[in-house]
Specification:
Length: about 180
């Protein structure tokens, strides 16, 4: 089997799915690929580079999911569709979603560009609302924080989580 960076990312995601993203090691990735750890360094320089590649894949995939969700829709309808798809992606791909949180640590120009494309989806969906730049940023921050919370928080109270998610989205989106 020819080792590629794409296969390394796939292996890293498999390992992260079993052990968690914070427990990812080069040794475990190499074992998942069936190679010795030193051989892995022929393809990536470090665990940091693997994390960078994970972040880039996550941004690419999440951006596509959001674009597809909003395709052909506009305004509030597009926001609702995007929000549900965003959360769905995060719940189906927890390790990949978690790696999006590493964007702030990145020094890679490619990651910065991908992050900008990701944020542009929000901006395009908000365009019909004629918001000032500051208001647009505030709405994006509120919406991303809300979506992230519904991905990472564990709600133990016996109230339907999906109903709560919908309720909160209505509070945010209908305010626009």
């Amino acid at each position: 089997m020819k080792i590629t960076q794409e296969k390394i990312v796939d292996a890293a995601l498999d390992v992260a799915g079993e052990r968690g993203l914070s427990n990812l090691t080069m040794k475990d990735i190499a074992a998942q690929l069936g190679i010795k750890t030193p051989s892995l360094y022929n393809h990536v320089a470090s665990l940091g580079e693997v994390r960078e590649l994970l972040t880039q894949r996550a941004l690419i995939e999440l951006t596509e999911v959001m674009k597809d969700a909003a395709l052909g829709l506009s305004g509030k309808e597009a926001l609702y569709a995007m929000a549900y798809k965003y959360r769905g992606f995060a719940l189906r791909h927890p390790s990949l979603y978690d790696s999006v949180q590493w964007v702030g640590r990145s020094k890679s120009e490619k990651t910065s560009e991908l992050s900008e494309k990701f944020l542009q989806i929000f901006e395009k969906i908000l365009a019909p609302f004629s918001l000032t730049f500051e208001k647009k940023i505030q709405i994006i921050r509120v919406l991303r924080s809300y979506l992230h919370g519904f991905v990472v928080l564990d709600f133990e109270v016996d109230v339907d989580v999906e109903e709560s998610f919908e309720y909160g989205l209505r509070l945010i989106i209908e305010h626009l």
